[in-house]
Amino acid sequence: MTPKNDACRLVVLISGRGSNMQAIVKTAQDTGVNARVCAVISNKPDAAGLVWAHEQGVDTRVVSHRDYPSREAFDADLARAIDAYEPHYVLLAGFMRVLTPAFVEHFNGRLINIHPSLLPAFPGLHTHQQALALGVQWHGCTVHFVTPVLDHGPILAQGIVPVMASDTINDLSDRLLSVEHAMYERVVRWLAEGRVTLDALQRVHVQGVATRSFVLTSQGVQSPEFCHE
Ligand code: GRF
Predict the structure, then answer these.
(1) The pTM is what?
(2) How far apart are CA 80 and CA 59, in angstroms?
(3) Probe target for ligand 1 pocket from 15, 17, 20, with the most ligand atoms within 8 Å of CB
(4) Residue-range domains of the chain with CATH
């Protein structure tokens, strides 16, 4: 948990475009939330998000998985690079590497991911394709604490969008992205305010928050929670 009054120190991991990372950085820089993105780290040297982060004055680093003989060696160096920034939380935002149990254990309770499905449906890759193939009428996204099990762990927030009959994979992923950004922004706020805890059953509680559900409507991304604020 973030100590009261301290800025919540965040390190964000990306592999590509980094639109979720941008939402996180903007939340920390522009909204009065007491959080600071200390670094954006990518496993891919050509990740477009690195350029944007650098332009915002955020430290950027590359730890390329191609430079390491094993997953363990890569994860160990990645952990060292992250630790140098002493973050309260490490946020995965389109970071496309499976992490070793040792890495996950090292950051236990501080490692958070966003996954583009309503978990536990559709873990793994190609979630939009899977949703369209099954004909589900609602698709979603999940922000969750990371455990050694892929795309699994205590749920911080979930959001949904309607699926349209004419949807392509791109239509659906673009629609969902607006919910991802709104949700990650809200989660950063909760973390920075020190309101997030886990109970004995490993369920998330956010002090003073009645629901952590989000939905895309014609009015934009809404949450019943917004009515309580
Ligand atoms: C997002 O859909 C995220 O949920 C998934 O990968 C995508 C990354 O997009 N893990 P971006 O790099 O944040 O724009």
Answers:
(1) 0.96
(2) 15
(3) 20
(4) 7-107 (3.40.50.170), 115-229 (3.40.50.170)
